[in-house]
Specification:
Keywords: Heme, Iron, Metal-binding
Helix content: 40-55%
Distance between the termini: 48 Å
Region (Disordered): 417-465
Order of helices and strands: HHHHHHEHHEEHHHEHHHHHHH
Number of domains: 1
Bound molecules: protoporphyrin IX containing FE
Strand order of the largest sheet: 1-4
Structural class: mainly alpha
GO cellular component, one term: cytoplasm
Radius of gyration: 22 Å
CATH architecture: Up-down Bundle
Shape: globular
Protein name: Indoleamine 2,3-dioxygenase
Largest sheet: 2 strands, parallel
Family: Belongs to the indoleamine 2,3-dioxygenase family.
Number of strands: 4
CATH topology: Methane Monooxygenase Hydroxylase, Chain G, domain 1
Strand content: under 5%
Number of helices: 18
């Protein structure tokens, strides 16, 4: 079988093997990684998983997409929003959606050779899809994504190797411009373009996520150094001393991430986050198994049984996953480590983290696949055990803090009464107003359980004496 790219090979493997078999195949040790260059995986030495510069706008043939995206914030509101302002937008919103339905299906083949245009097309189309679906009035029937969006989005996603839905990449990595183009990429110098809710909370969330990604560049340097270390040098005193320094530095960088998470309390408002922002990111499955979900019109088998349509989450941040790969955090509970997983750990969604890989750009997923873990080396090298454990302990502390954030921003909100403007009409909860997202159904315990299982898996990576 001949594949036009590693992503096509990955897609084929994924369709024929189960995900753990694919991972095993792809993570077998390489004889040498001297040929490992982060740039081959669209990872930039300065901006990491961000493109090195803001994405260019699409060529003129696609200006209807760009224009519809620019118009959307002024005419649309969440379909379930019954505030005066939202109600006043309903007729304009219906017009906006009917325009999208009337569009021709555009051929995207001219974008194929330019990764930046493909990324821009994904960001624009996935944003249009979420604007379209979430501005519709609540319904218990399947939501049809018009073919004018669905078909090109699926095509562009195939080439990029990413899910055909709004992802972390669309909202955070590909959705900004520079405040001052003469200055380098930094969280202080970025302005976010599409904010569905138009709130400072949404901007604050994207900016904090951007700060995490950019801080992560320091980690990527450490990972890349380890990656290019010849295996023969794992016993070399000089190389081990450098690795120990790198692991201690990694612990500092992770502490820096925790500080960024803490800063979100100032910039991200829990009420707005839960009720006004997060609903825009939800995917086809967020209303639970009883809702018929979304149908991608004109796409064969265009539903969530055949496509990854889960929606956007910071759980798709490649930087965070790279950290897990490097430290070998066993989210799937595949290794025998202590302390043994609790009953609740075992009942958590153990496939979640691996599923999130499918929502990353294919090249970033390839990067993760090639990344080696430092744990086996730390395990057999006395001088590395402490620095390795320091990095793991810092990551556990980060996850502890993240759990506290999620308790405030999601779990308690999921248990609370919706504000008047979002209360289901006629008191019926068919739309699942209180039950969007993973907190659905069990008053937040699904989300808490997932995150606690991740924290405990992190703790279990600590090397014992
Ligand atoms: C107000 C701040 C935040 C809230 C309320 C929040 C909420 C959540 C929730 C509810 C989940 C569960 C999965 C899901 O619903 O998608 C999750 C998972 C996750 N989030 Fe956050 N998040 C926040 C900030 C961040 C930031 C800034 C990052 C990093 C860029 C991040 C990275 C992750 C990761 C990697 C996971 C997967 C689980 C894990 O690694 O423990 N989160 N988050």
């Amino acid at each position: 079988m001949i594949f036009s790219s590693p992503i096509h090979a990955f897609a084929w493997l994924s369709s024929t093997l189960d995900s753990s078999q694919v991972l095993n195949l792809l993570t077998q040790p390489f004889a040498s990684d001297n040929d490992f260059r982060a740039s081959d995986f669209d990872v930039d030495p300065k901006s990491g998983f961000f493109p090195p510069a803001p994405l260019p706008r699409l060529p003129a043939e696609f200006c209807i997409w760009e224009t519809a995206l620019a118009t959307a914030p002024g005419v649309l509101a969440l379909g379930k929003d019954r505030s005066e302002e939202a109600l006043s937008r309903r007729s304009d919103g219906a017009w906006w959606r009917s325009t999208i339905r009337s569009w021709p299906v555009k051929d995207v083949s001219i974008l194929r050779e330019d990764i930046r245009l493909l990324q821009r097309a994904h960001m624009v189309l996935a944003s249009l899809m979420h604007y379209y679906v979430h501005s519709l009035p609540p319904t218990d029937t399947a939501l049809i994504v018009p073919k004018s969006i669905a078909i090109p989005l699926v095509e562009v996603s195939r080439v990029l190797g990413i899910a055909p839905v709004l992802t972390f990449a669309d909202t955070v990595l590909w959705n900004w411009e520079l405040v001052d183009p003469a200055l380098p990429v930094s969280a202080d110098n970025m302005r976010y373009l599409t904010t569905f809710s138009g709130t400072d909370t949404e901007r604050g969330f994207y900016l904090a996520s951007a700060a995490v990604e950019l801080k992560g560049v320091e980690m990527l340097d450490i990972f890349n150094r380890f990656q290019s270390l010849p295996r023969s040098s794992y016993t070399d005193a000089h190389a081990i001393a450098q690795l120990a320094r790198d692991l201690n530095q990694l612990a500092n960088v992770i502490d820096g991430l925790t500080e960024i998470f803490k800063s979100m309390r100032e910039t991200v408002d829990p009420h707005d986050f839960y009720w006004v922002v997060r609903p825009w990111w939800a995917g086809a499955t967020s209303k639970g198994p009883n809702h018929p979900g979304w149908v991608l019109e004109g796409v064969p088998n265009g539903d969530s049984a055949h496509f990854d349509l889960g929606g956007a989450s910071a759980g798709q941040s490649s930087v965070m996953h790279a950290l897990d790969v490097f430290l070998d955090i066993d989210h799937r509970l595949a290794s025998h480590r202590t302390p043994a997983p609790t009953e609740r750990n075992r009942h958590a969604d153990l496939g979640f983290m691996q599923r999130m890989w499918r929502y990353m750009p294919g090249k970033h997923r390839e990067y993760l696949t090639r990344l080696r873990s430092v744990r086996p080396v730390a395990e057999r090298t006395p001088g590395l055990r402490e620095p390795y454990n320091a990095a793991v302990a810092a990551l556990k502390k980060l996850r502890d803090f993240h759990i506290r954030i999620v308790a405030i921003y999601v779990v308690t909100k999921a248990d609370s009464t919706p504000p008047e403007r979002f209360a289901p009409e006629g008191g019926d909860d068919a739309e699942g107003t209180q039950k969007d997202g993973p907190a659905r159904g069990t008053g937040g315990s699904e989300v808490s359980n997932l995150l606690k299982a991740g924290r405990d898996a992190t703790n279990r990576a600590l090397l014992q004496d």
